[in-house]
Amino acid sequence: MEHGRVIISVENLVKNYGNFEAVKGISFDVYENEIFGLLGPNGAGKSTTLEIIETLRPKTGGKILVNGIDLDRDPQEIKKIIGVQLQTSGYYPNLTLLELINLFAGLYNRNVNAMELLDTVNLRDKAKSKVKELSGGQKQRFSIATTLINEPKIIFLDEPTTGLDPQARRNLWDLVKQIRSRGTTVIITTHYMDEAEFLCDRVAIVDSGKIVALNTPDRLIDELVATGFERPKEVKKANLEDVFIHLTGKSLRED
Ligand code: ADP
Ligand code: MG
Fold this sequence. Notes:
Shape: globular
Strand order of the largest sheet: 6-7-8-3-9-10
Distance between the termini: 40 Å
Number of strands: 10
Number of helices: 9
Helix content: 25-40%
Radius of gyration: 19 Å
Structural class: alpha/beta
Bound molecules: adenosine-5'-diphosphate, magnesium ion
Strand content: 15-25%
Oligomer: single chain
Order of helices and strands: EEEHEEHEHHHEHEHEEHH
Largest sheet: 6 strands, mixed
Mean pLDDT: 92
């Protein structure tokens, strides 16, 4: 497959919490401008892995390069080129979205057009609102907007669609694709396999701190089929989610 250069290289990453091995020597590369998915059950070590790459958590062992920068040597340089989603609960409760973006821009020492940024995530109408006044999907979109303030090369999204309704989830997929189309590399975790299949160029499946598979969704499916696996025949041409979307519309309802 055609792919860009390696923008994140993880080699033999180990993370122990006390004597518990959460990440057991995983290695993978992320290519520039791809959407790379980390999939796996709760407790697999996905967030730990992301937070180590984000320089937010110390590792026990292994080597990580982000855009050629060695995490052990220059974490500050890595911070400058990545965008990390913050928990929206951590935002100053009395500031408006516009004020928050300007505050973060100040912290990053960046000039941003806050309105334009809110427009990107479809929140222009909410510029004067506070975070607590937003719906779940709007909060997620705002939190994604904050990752874009420093015009990062790479953004990290840890379960950005968990808890969202089907429309809000699809709306976020469009946003992630749109961000990638501007040249940004995206690393995302999700528990929704339809989402991973739709969004991700490649996925790594992590289980108990180890990567058990890494490939394009298409190839992983082909590999499974090649083993003789056959899904029980689908008797219906639609599922309940199709019914839901059909009845309530594809458009976003929260606005
Ligand atoms: P995931 O994001 O895949 O659900 P995590 O990376 O959050 O998994 O957690 C991996 C494992 O490490 C889990 O068993 C979790 O309980 C444990 N763990 C995560 N953070 C800590 C911590 N700060 N201290 C101790 N154990 C932790
Ligand atoms: Mg997690």
